[in-house]
Every structure is written in structure tokens, then in C-alpha cells.
Specification:
The protein has 146 residues and is α+β, with helices and mostly antiparallel strands. The protein is built from 2 helices and 6 strands; from the N terminus they run H-E-E-E-E-E-E-H.
Length: 146
């Protein structure tokens, strides 16, 4: 009689697991698939498309710069990244920010150069930006030989 009770309990557990598995399978099959409009066709030479692209460079815990874009298309064959709706934030050593925005941009993956195009706008604290620029040019000037 004790063995029969154990068999009944085991049979009940197996039946319960099978029921849960079947319900889970049916639910996963009934999930709606993505609408066709949300799927994008990538052009032939684009390897990866990334939405809400963001790259940050930090040194010693300080964020030096950040590049954000609405969309990025990585083209490995051409070694470049094409950006749409770009925003570049530059942080100075004195914790002051400058931003550059543009409609589009290209990052050369080999040289790490970035080229921005279309409605390029630069914003910065004028005093701090020109003060840094003036200090950099005076530091690099050679003394006059007389």
C-alpha cells in the first residue's frame, strides 16, 4: 500500500510537469511575431546595424568623450562606421563640456578619425574653450630668437 501511494505521487508529479510543459509550449507558439514593418533589410555591404549607438572613452574613471548616434551601420569591408543623428560630447580636464552635433558622420575604424556632415553645430563655454585654445597655442610657440 505504501508503494502504491509513492507511485501515485510520482505519477501525479510527472503529469503536473507534462501539463506545465504543454501550457508553456502553447503560450510560446501563440506569441505574436514581429510585424514586417519593424524588420529592416540591411544593404549588401552593411554587416551590423545598431540603434541608439553609444561609445564612451574613459581614462582613470573620467569620461573623456562620448559619441551617440540614432543609428550606426558597421561596414567591416570598408573599415568604417556610418552614423545618423550624431552627438559628440567632449569633456575637458576642468570638468567643462563641449558638444558637437551633426546629421551624419563617419568613423574610420583604422585611423579612429571621425568626419561629421550636415548641420554641424559646436557648443561650448566660450571663455573656457578659447582660454584652453590660447593656452595651447602659447605653450607650442617657439621663443623669438633675437
Amino acid at each position: 500500500m505504501f508503494k502504491n501511494n509513492i507511485r501515485k505521487i510520482l505519477l501525479g508529479v510527472i503529469f503536473l510537469l507534462m501539463t506545465v510543459s504543454i501550457i508553456s509550449l502553447v503560450k510560446s507558439l501563440n506569441k505574436k511575431s514581429l510585424p514586417v514593418e519593424t524588420l529592416k533589410m540591411m544593404s549588401k555591404n552593411v554587416d551590423i546595424e545598431i540603434e541608439n549607438f553609444k561609445v564612451t572613452h574613459e581614462a582613470l574613471g573620467n569620461k573623456d568623450w562620448e559619441i551617440k548616434a540614432k543609428e550606426a551601420k558597421v561596414k567591416n569591408e570598408e573599415s568604417k562606421i556610418i552614423l545618423t543623428d550624431v552627438n559628440v560630447t567632449l569633456n575637458s580636464s576642468k570638468n567643462q563640456k563641449s558638444t558637437i552635433s551633426a546629421d551624419s558622420g563617419t568613423i574610420n575604424r583604422e585611423t579612429k578619425d571621425i568626419q561629421l556632415e550636415g548641420n554641424v553645430k559646436f557648443k561650448s563655454d566660450v571663455d573656457s574653450f578659447f582660454g584652453q585654445l590660447q593656452q595651447q597655442t602659447s605653450d607650442t610657440k617657439e621663443p623669438d630668437n633675437q
